């Protein structure tokens, strides 16, 4: 057969290029889409009453003894029996009574794509790294809008995030120190920032500024919104003039105003307790609070992602109530530097008080062009980590990631019915 005519060869070449470009676009699209997971089921076996807690523990400013990435590689893989013990949980009710619930895990073998993640990078130093890059959201009209409105304050001094109309996800150490419940948990409350009154100064009613001149802080608000909505694009690359001034972009804070709601019950996994999880306790540093009354605030759904490497820039976001900026909501974003099966190691600037914040990312919904934020972890805070398993301590800012098993447990706590939790 002789050479093909140019009139035949050219269309074939063009078609091949078009197909290759389409395949590449689909691959990129898949990377930016929420993966669909068939998760195992966590089912209740038995609930028994326990004696009332003493509520004598004191809050811890820093956690220590966390088993890091290399340390965890030396720990034998947990058996199904171990996992069922770790995921069994205690429930403390508002009247001070307590129960213990044992669970069974079904369908664990079906979760095959979840593999151990190990990466390495240079290590930095604690809490606030270099120039403080947190954004103070001092305008209540903005901090009370989604996604920032999902952030709540816990009366023990931590933060949390609404994951249902009446459930808050937070860190276990904000409730329990591993041995006993914190003083104040028997009267635990959750605070949600109130909107500023529309009347009077700054409002839209009589005496307000209306649509005229910009108020102080409006520019800051727009910059933070642009950063959040663009998923942090245009990230800081140096310590130039723009970066230095960013930490100062906050208006004078108003007096904090929260709407407080009592907690009906609190649930903490046994994996967090001393003598149960031990070296893996940090993996279970999460708890769920059920509120007596659902606030009229939109919540954020949970999500599961196997690796942050496929997320744009590996970037995470979270907002909390840092102690050094009383009453104000503080937002930040940064890239994850290292990740293990259960923990995310990063250098997001944070201070005590932000522990328990919901760590989230934005990806597209499958088959849709709409981006959606979901919680993929809980910020645990600054921790001293046993890096190599030899007792040497290295400091990190750590977040507990939502795995398929943790998704199944939290979903069960929220819905009370594991049949609602087949797919993440």
Characterization of the model:
The chain is of the alpha+beta class. It has one domain: Beta Barrel (Thrombin, subunit H). It is 17% helix and 29% strand. The chain contains seven helices and 17 strands. The strands form two sheets. Strands 2, 5, 12, 13, 14, 15, 16 and 17 form an eight-stranded mixed sheet that branches. The chain has a six-stranded antiparallel β-barrel with strand order 6-7-8-11-10-9. The longest helix is centred in the N-terminal third of the chain and has 26 residues, at 6-31. It starts with 5 loop residues before the first helix and ends in a 9-residue tail after the last helix. Mean pLDDT is 78; it is low at 8-28, 118-126, 198-223 and 232-253.
Helix-strand sequence = HEEHHEEEHEEEEHHEEEEEEEEH
Low-confidence stretches: 8-28, 118-126, 198-223, 232-253
CATH 2nd-level architecture: Beta Barrel
What proportion of the residues form beta strands (DSSP E)?
25-35%
> Mind telling me the CATH superfamily name?
Trypsin-like serine proteases
Oligomeric nature of the chains:
single chain
Residue-averaged pLDDT: 78
State the end-to-end distance: 55 Å
Number of domains: 1
How many H/I helices? Answer: 7
Protein traits:
single chain, 424 residues, eight-stranded mixed beta sheet, globular, six-stranded antiparallel β-barrel, Thrombin, subunit H, 17% helix
Gist of the model:
With 424 residues, this protein is an alpha+beta fold.
Secondary-structure map:
Layout: H1 6-31, E1 41-50, E2 63-67, H2 69-73, H3 80-87, E3 89-93, E4 98-106, E5 135-137, H4 140-143, E6 151-154, E7 159-164, E8 167-170, E9 189-193, H5 218-229, H6 241-246, E10 258-269, E11 287-291, E12 315-320, E13 329-339, E14 343-346, E15 358-364, E16 371-386, E17 393-401, H7 404-415
Parallel strand pairs: 2-16
Antiparallel strand pairs: 1-4, 3-4, 3-10, 5-13, 6-7, 6-9, 7-8, 8-11, 9-10, 10-11, 12-13, 13-14, 14-17, 15-16, 16-17
Domain Peptidase S1: 141-182
Family: Belongs to the peptidase S1 family.
Keywords: Glycoprotein, Secreted, Serine protease homolog, Signal
